[in-house]
Amino acid sequence: MTVAGKIAPEHPAEVRRPAPRPGFRDRLARWDVKVSPYLYVAPFFIVFGIVGLFPLLYTAYVSLFHWKAGDDDPDFIGLDNFKELFADAQFWHALENTVSIFLLSSVPQLIIAVGLAALLTTGIRGATGWRVGVLLPYAASLVALGIIFANLFGPKYGLVNGLLQTVGLSPVDWQANRLASHVAIAIMVNWRWTGYNALIVLAAMQAIPRELHEAALIDGAGPARRFRHITLPLLKPTLIFVTITSTIGGLQIFTEPKLFDAMPGSNNGGSTHQFQTVTLYLYQTAFENFDLGYASAIAWLLFLIIVLIALVNYLLTGRLARTPGRKK
Amino acid sequence: MTALTVAACGGDSGGDGVPAAAGPNEHVDLTLATFTEFGYEALIPEYERLHPNITITHRKTGQGGPYAQDMMTKLAAGSGLADVQAVEEGHLSDILDKSSKFNDLTKIGPADAGADRWLPWKYDAGKDKNGKLIGYGTDIGPDAMCYRKDLFAAAGLPTDPDAVKSLFAGWDSYFDAGAQYVTKTGGKAWFDSAAQNFNAIVNQLPVGYLDTGDKLTVETNQGIKDAWTKVTGAVAKGESAKLTAFSNEWNSGFKQNAFATKVCPAWMLGVIKEQAGPENAGKWAVTAAFPGGGGNWGGSYLTVPTQSKHPREAAELAAWLTAPEQQIKAFEAKGNFPSQVKALQSPTLLNSTDAYFGGAKVGELFAEQAKKVTKAQYKGPNDGQIQENVAAPALQAVEQGTSAADGWSQFVAGAKKLTR
Fold first, then answer.
1. What is the pLDDT of residue A321?
2. Euclidean distance between CA atoms B72 and B90, whole angstroms
3. Do the Cβ atoms of B248 and A154 come within 8 Å?
4. Strands B54-61 and B28-35
5. Which chain B residues have a beta carbon less than 8 Å from that of A266?
6. For B420, what's the count of Cα atoms within 13 Å in the CB-facing half-sphere?
7. Structural element, H or E, at residue B391
8. Distance from CA of A202 to the nearest CA of B (A)
9. What backbone phi and psi angles, to 5 degrees, belong to B57?
10. 3-state DSSP call for residue B172?
């Protein structure tokens, strides 16, 4: 604290003789303290109310109707859309696809991201160049990437099958086979997001105090042991953050499967919907078949599923983030 | 009520809910929305010169798919559509289903834009169930057959455009010739994809996916079942190159000589030129024959939505743009094949040739094909989606190894779900 700080009273209002009645300025100050914070945070809530909450509630309303775009008076059908949705094999098929693509992308992506970050923290030459290089795929246009990857995975004239054939393997029909299509899409996702996640993990790694490593080094711990027992435990909160963000992104995956379809502009996700994700199905229902009521029901079910998974994530986070030492 | 009083009171005319025409000196801003290439770039300034009180804003969209989505959304929202809104044939059924949101052009359009201007099937397809005309026809896509002369020669088939006509007389002879071709070439494909042929066959049927009561016919319509059997039979014989139309692989297929024949609406010539490239010039040919007679694939309409504030001026513009003289200019600019009887007799059209296709008189050829189409098949709501999102993927699944029977169940189930 500075000298001026010591001389100046900490709370001028307490030192001053209390006024018989609070003046306008005082009242203004009190109001300022009480109301201003709400005003400062209000813009977010207003914008959220308009573009988030209202659509959410309106979607719930629309989901109770048999509502085709342009209908003059849609029929109220209550929860029939949801009843139908629960029995809709295509929806569950799409959900399976989504989860499968999500697992195929997130798991390897996080493992590679941690490995990449570990490599980037070692004293390599030109560290900044490498770090920028890792982030570059993320900066590229998603649509351009989708088109390029869809070309690479072309069943007849694609580069990947060309390479497979030159090394003597049989070509894969990347679009026809369900698992192959999921792998191809996951590769697209991984290529784009691994570097992004690696940089977040890298930032967290660099925040780990050097002393811990030095102490472990003196105790004779090798690099692998230090990584397992110091780096990984301290990275936990960051890893949880990265997991949650990629879960949300993974459940909403849309562009990659859309552009992967051989039929341009198609939302089918392959001939038998083998790689149609939930958002793709939602988009097709709403904007290709113009079945707005049913699409709203899909949107709400997807919303509930995401909330459920977020809740599970939250519970798991609570358990994992508690370090053993602080356990009561 | 006379036109004069209409203009004078400036309100509603004759109680039909359509705003009256603007006075001759009143300035009118019109918007015109089109997709891909309509060839109107030079025509718009010309129209503005002829009508000094009218300013036209032309909104061009690159692709038909997103354009149609945007249009349906604006239609549902009740605002945002252009005064003159172009609609592609494939999306027309969705619009006809909502015909109350469009003006009846027989009521507000100029007298010279009568039924006799167009080929009857083109004109009729622009009418809704109750006979209300909601669109003026622009271009059409009369079907012919394109084929590779060099690949035909290598397989010992005739190559001259007149000599090959017998191969393309009917779908049976077409698929039989394909089976022959596959055997003689040791397994090379005859056509590009099953869905392209299936669409063409279904389009020729008297009743399509939906009957005039908008009931789904796929389970009871023998014609559709027969088309399915024929096409999947050809797939089983190895006649399909299994390339999804307009995909990147399909584009590559043109360069890689992946197939020998191609269902060829008039506009497909441009696609072939672009995709097969100059190195294949002279190898492709086109002949005035199409299995099962004539057919049409593609083409558009100009509509005037009820959202328009100047429907009469908009209808006049749409009528002018679809007049034979203007359609010939659009044909010269972008090759859009006209649908007007007089335009089809125009020497400009009849004398047009295409060097890429061996100097064939393509204008005359497609004009002849256009006249082979007898009547417009009724298209119910979701017709386009059944074709694109149900039939085409189911046929692709068959090409990828699903049995024809399983593919058929997928098709029927999908069509039912879409029209529930």
1. 56
2. 13
3. yes
4. parallel
5. 388-389
6. 18
7. none
8. 39
9. -105, 120
10. helix
